[in-house]
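Please predict the structure of the following assembly.
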Amino acid sequence: MADAVTQTRDAGTGIARYAGKPIANCTNLELFNALLRMVRDAAQARGTNQGKKRLYYVSAEFLIGKLLSNNLINLGLYEQVRAELAAAGRSLAELEELESEPSLGNGGLGRLAACFLDSCATLGLPADGIGLAYHCGLFRQSFLGNKQCETPDGWLTWGQESWMRRASLHQTVSFGDFDVTSTLYDIDVTGYGSKCARLRLFDVDSADERLIKDGIAFDKRRVAQGLTLFLYPDDSDDEGRILRVYQEYFMCSNAAQLILAECEERGSNLRDLADYAAVQINDTHPSMIIPELIRLLVQRGIAFDEARGIVRDVCAYTNHTILAEALECWPKSFLQRVAPQIVPIIERLDADVRKSCKEPFVQIVDEHDNVHMANMDIHLSHSTNGVAALHTKILEDVELAPFRRLYPERFNNKTNGITFRRWCIACNPELAALVDRTIGDGWRHDATQLERLLEHEDDALLGELAAIKRRNKERFATWIERHQGAKVDPESVFDVQSKRLHEYKRQQLNLLWAIDAYLGIKAGKLPRRKVTVIFGAKAAPAYTIAKDVIHAILCLSQVVAADPVANKWLQIVMIENYNVTAAERLIPAADISEQISLASKEASGTGNMKFMLNGALTLGTMDGANVEIAGLVGADNIFTFGESSDEVIARYQRGDYDPMSYYQDDERIKAAVDFLLSHDMLAAGDGHSLDRLAHELMCKDWFMTFPDFDAYLAEKDRMLEAAEDEATWQSKCLVNIAKAGFFSSDRTIAEYNRDIWHLTPDAD
Ligand code: NBG
């Protein structure tokens, strides 16, 4: 690309050449398309990391975000392109607006997969992500009548300029009663100053978007047409659940066929497959790759027992949750219908386990003929890892303890990480530039160098940090007004909770805090400064209580906004259609990072790391990676509260938690919960939904909101008080930024490679 960007001014640099006319004469769309082609060529010119052994990271989700800026940064073209556009009176930021965000993921699990590919590319590791090209993604969220509505996220306009290149590969996947043909699309994943990795997405040729009728509803029995329309189609009925099994088998069979063909091409005789391939099974969605690989190896003449050993040496499994509901478990009859060819293999694997171990907990197939995917993963892989130290410890000591006794050497921890390219350099360029000026740019490749910031702490540096935060808040204010018409005050404290909507993450705890604060203001207890509580979250379409929480937040937002006194002190905003693009605006603007999951339930969290890196302080429970953040920054630089994971686990074991007694004994809890059914809330919303939520809290509260309520209120108050001492606050922010280096996904990936994959970096 170097020649393209150093061309003479008259002929234009690369951009004008790709556009076929001078920049000034182009529409924004023409410029965007030209840049896209130019970047694609530049990535191709860099080439893909090669090596005998290759990683195949198989995942149902890859939440990659927009790619233009990130690719320009990684290819070292960002500044040149920005300056060149600016010289012609054009703005790169405006072009970025045209790009639609690929809707290929849901939350942390998918974003982690994207960060990992960036780090693999950057570290020179030969690596491919393998997943599916969902036409309409997860869904697009809008708010109507204070409720979440779902519509297809048509991020893909087939035939138009796209990052996806159609590969020449076509494969057949055989289901029980029919076959389908798949097509492969590749997206180059640029590394920072290095060659590329690839994201390889399979689609089914028979997919038909016309099947979608009302919102995101479609006839789920039309498998061949519906297979790749959505990520996580509604699984509240058997048809939806079976469709997910079809999707998973489609992904796994395609991945397995591709892997074997590629490895053979690189010289493998398949018996030595482990020298050619490392397969990372990202949560349980790709688990069927195990029996599928065994099936294909046996088909190619390898004895079953040998094939089983080969697959075990190739595969490794990452667990991302301890919530039982997320550990997939499929009735054998579903598998029989979808992929009868792998059922005898699973039965044989199950029989093997039974021979050596009688314990019911570790069986692959249970007495009701349900197949436990995670159990199969653990038995048939050489590594099982959790994603933060506490999470791995809970897996080892509690949730998966019987497996740990069987295979102590297979368990390991890999604390999650984030790519600093996207989550600082791209989304917070002013902060990145300040860091460069202060300690040089070595941190861009070695994030631990951020610690050196601490040697430079003085009033000037803290003042600059404060000024950058202020400008980021102003930018966010401009963005959210354009995005959804909400006006927020950059002068206020930005108190942010953005993540999937789930009861264990406890958005409802934050909601109850906001109600309490509102009632306090009504009673004359004014905060020191206005607080803007910002939520970003999508609820799974079939998750009723999660949608009730969104409804209550939106109703409260309306009630507070309509109150002429309260609206001077408190504002509640929920970002519509929260996604990576919104996160990139929001996170650099945050003051408070809410990480308030019920201790023991959040495997890691990665938002917590992004906020920390961008100079927000954590208000959190000692859960997931929060524990490691606390260890790194020290007690003075984080705000923690709530019961410990040990206490919570003991409560579950005792089974004696009674939310009603908290409701009755604690006046503030009672007032906050009762307010859900107040006249004002009912006027703003739907009585059924609000009542269901209040009832759920009082009578069930499975994720124990009430026992942590008082401690949360007290710690948040302490934190809001601390926010008024600007210098001390910024000094805490500086410590958080300086200590964030540990959470670079480059570190995480280097550990995966050292302990699990053993790939050789491509040196040239
Ligand atoms: C999520 C966890 C997070 C974790 C990410 C990435 C799922 C199933 N799990 O705590 O909830 O940070 O995975 O590991 O989405």
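The chain is about 45% helix and 15% strand. Residues 238-265 form the longest helix (28 residues).
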